[in-house]
């Protein structure tokens, strides 16, 4: 049974979940570089080394998506059962060719933006255009990659939730790894930004649930019912308490934001909560949930260790080009 978990659909599904969690930091770091190019601020200057090294990994994000693209037929019900979709949706949008084209466009664009800004070639005009491009692409691929696992469920706020989750994960990553080198003022700024992103994720997730509850539509109810078992309820409660409430309490206090250990603790909790949140969003769509979680944890560890090794090699170069 253990061997079977490492092959076939379970492996493809686990890789998708691991990819969703892991890719938040590189893509979110790219976004932060774009935002800082427009807004300025010491928070971006002091965390530039880590942000640039992480944003450079958008090239690895594109490569890591290839197994998903090759095996998408094992992941999505619409890939082998067009009857799961309205006919016009299947013909004009959610099909293999459209899925591959939108993924390639998004990943190549993010690769170019991440690499360009990681090398310090920052221009406000490019940053503005890049953020507009990101907004358009995340609105498409968040639905393609994650929401279409259960294609009858629709949530207009879902892409925004994923986008802010990526920002929160990148800021949490900075909080964990850059905190020792930050002075109190910059640490407080990073903590405040992380607090805002954290509130954004919680607000959008809660409002999505509230609208679905008031609407009381069968497809939305079915999506939430899959996530209402004792185990999945416990996981989302744990994600909320450890990944949102505790970091909120730490970051709400000025002393907590300015403290190296406070900022690192909040960042680590947010990263852990983000992982649980993605598990809650994606894994209940599959039948072999235990295998997906177990194998997905291993895949996430491989991706994380590999990207840390690559990122640490990029840090000296990022410091050299730092403006």
From TrEMBL:
It comes from the Bacteria. The chain crosses the membrane at residues 14-35, 56-79, 99-119, 126-147, 153-178, 190-210, 230-253, 265-286, 292-315. Coiled coil: none annotated. Keywords: Membrane, Transmembrane, Transmembrane helix. This is Quinol:cytochrome c oxidoreductase quinone-binding subunit 2. It comes from Bradyrhizobium vignae.
């Amino acid at each position: 049974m253990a061997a079977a978990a490492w092959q076939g659909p379970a492996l493809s599904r686990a890789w998708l979940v691991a990819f969703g969690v892991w890719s938040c930091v590189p893509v979110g770091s790219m976004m932060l570089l774009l935002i800082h190019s427009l807004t300025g601020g010491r928070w971006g200057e002091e965390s530039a080394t880590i942000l640039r090294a992480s944003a450079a990994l958008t090239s690895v994000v594109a490569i890591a998506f290839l197994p998903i693209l090759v095996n998408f037929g094992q992941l999505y019900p619409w890939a082998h059962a067009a009857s799961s979709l309205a006919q016009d949706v299947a013909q004009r949008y959610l099909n293999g060719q459209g899925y591959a084209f939108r993924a390639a466009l998004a990943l190549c664009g993010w690769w170019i933006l991440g690499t360009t800004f990681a090398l310090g070639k920052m221009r406000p005009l490019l940053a503005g255009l890049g953020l507009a491009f990101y907004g358009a692409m995340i609105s498409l691929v968040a639905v393609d990659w994650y929401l279409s696992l259960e294609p009858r469920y629709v949530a207009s706020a879902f892409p925004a939730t994923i986008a802010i989750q990526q920002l929160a994960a990148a800021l949490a990553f900075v909080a964990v790894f850059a905190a020792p080198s930050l002075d109190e003022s910059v640490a407080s700024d990073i903590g405040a930004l992380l607090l805002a992103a954290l509130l954004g994720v919680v607000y959008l997730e809660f409002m999505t649930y509230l609208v679905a509850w008031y609407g009381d539509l069968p497809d939305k109810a079915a999506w939430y019912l899959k996530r209402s078992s004792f185990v999945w309820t416990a996981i989302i409660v744990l994600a909320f308490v450890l990944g949102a409430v505790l970091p909120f309490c730490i970051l709400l206090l000025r002393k907590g934001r300015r403290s190296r250990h406070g900022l690192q603790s909040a960042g680590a909790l947010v990263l852990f909560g983000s992982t649980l949140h993605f598990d809650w969003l994606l894994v209940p769509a599959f039948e072999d949930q235990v295998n997906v979680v177990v194998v997905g944890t291993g895949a996430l560890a491989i991706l994380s260790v590999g990207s840390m090794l690559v990122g640490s090699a990029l840090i000296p170069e990022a410091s050299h080009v730092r403006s």
